[in-house]
């Protein structure tokens, strides 16, 4: 039975155990009891899963700057880990050459520290939400490999270095793979070459030797793409470049991936020796405009009749179907609790979700555990019910391979 986890926190350690997370340093223990619970009788997710994995959400500035008070109550009651939805992406934190804007990111990190949370950084190297100047010279032509490597190193050292010992884990590289498992033809690949991934991890390691470093992507349940991610992990390991975790984003559909596919994907990642983080969990209940199973942020689709069916409310039958889907997925996570460190939802309440705007703008989506009024949905109850149930003891990887 997993009693507690210890994660590096600079010179200190964060111990997340039965009594919540607390910072522990060689000079004594800093009390980090959980913040007061919101006034509700609902059990807290973070307490229900305290023996299993951390539970969190992606936050926007309204939440960490305190303007969204209802969202704030959900976060402090239920979550012990946070991810920034946008403020640490390149276009926000480093919008122009030589100009960094750390104001929102500083507030995000300070919020996580105030609430004694496991603070995730998202993301250092990605093809999206990265300004064009990064890849271009003054004339608009592609820069050389050396120039782009120097820019990447400066960015990673400046951003991860600023939060050294304070941000506990970084999505170092996001979405480097195509669905067939080959490397995406992003400017990072075409200008630097395939070793851009290894370089990003090396620079992140230099910037903060104690932060956990992750590779993060969507639809890793797709066997071909999963194989590509395993190749990335194995190659880093072969070159002795540390990687602690794989981030399975988990933008799930009602009918994909199957429970069996989710299960086998986690088992295969576990065999590489890295930890699994579920990093961007949501379940889309709306009709899919295409057969695309992924979560490619650049995808756009046309609004059409029948594609926004729950404008007024989610019918009870769909609430129940969503609750059942969440329960089945959490049953898989619980089965793999020995290798899963964290489950983070992509958003807090339904009204915050990116799925209201993707791939068709202006729809009304219901992908999370809390509704637009920040009340727990039947899906919250079903997930909490799973937490009360028995734990299977089959380890995801044979003993001795932890
Ligand atoms: C991807 C990214 C996230 C976010 C979502 C959609 O999964 O990793 O940062 O942009 O898309 O919002």
Regarding CATH, which class? Answer: Alpha Beta
Q: Roughly what is the average pLDDT, rounded to an integer?
A: 90
The radius of gyration computed from the alpha-carbon positions, rounded to a whole number of angstroms, is: 20 Å
Helix/strand/pairing category: alpha/beta
Strand content: 15-25%
Ligand set:
alpha-D-galactopyranose
Polypeptide structure, described:
By secondary structure, the chain is an alpha/beta fold. It has a single domain (38-286, 311-388), classed as Glycosidases (TIM Barrel), CATH 3.20.20. 32% of the residues lie in helices and 18% in strands. The chain has 12 helices and 13 strands. The protein has helices at residues 45-48, 61-64, 69-78, 90-93, 103-114, 145-162, 187-192, 196-207, 223-238, 259-271, 316-335, 378-388; strands spanning 5-9, 12-17, 20-25, 28-30, 54-59, 81-84, 118-125, 169-174, 212-217, 245-248, 251-253, 275-284, 340-345. The strands form 2 sheets. The protein has an 8-stranded parallel barrel with strand order 5-6-7-8-9-10-12-13, surrounded by 6 helices. A 4-stranded antiparallel β-sheet has the order 1-2-3-4, with no helix packed on it. Helix 10 (259-271) links the parallel strand 11 (251-253) and strand 12. Helix 6 packs parallel to helix 8. The longest helix has 20 residues, at 316-335. The radius of gyration is 20 Å and the shape is globular. The two termini are 14 Å apart. Mean pLDDT is 90; it is low at 1-39. The structure holds alpha-D-galactopyranose. Alpha-D-galactopyranose (GLA) binds next to loops.
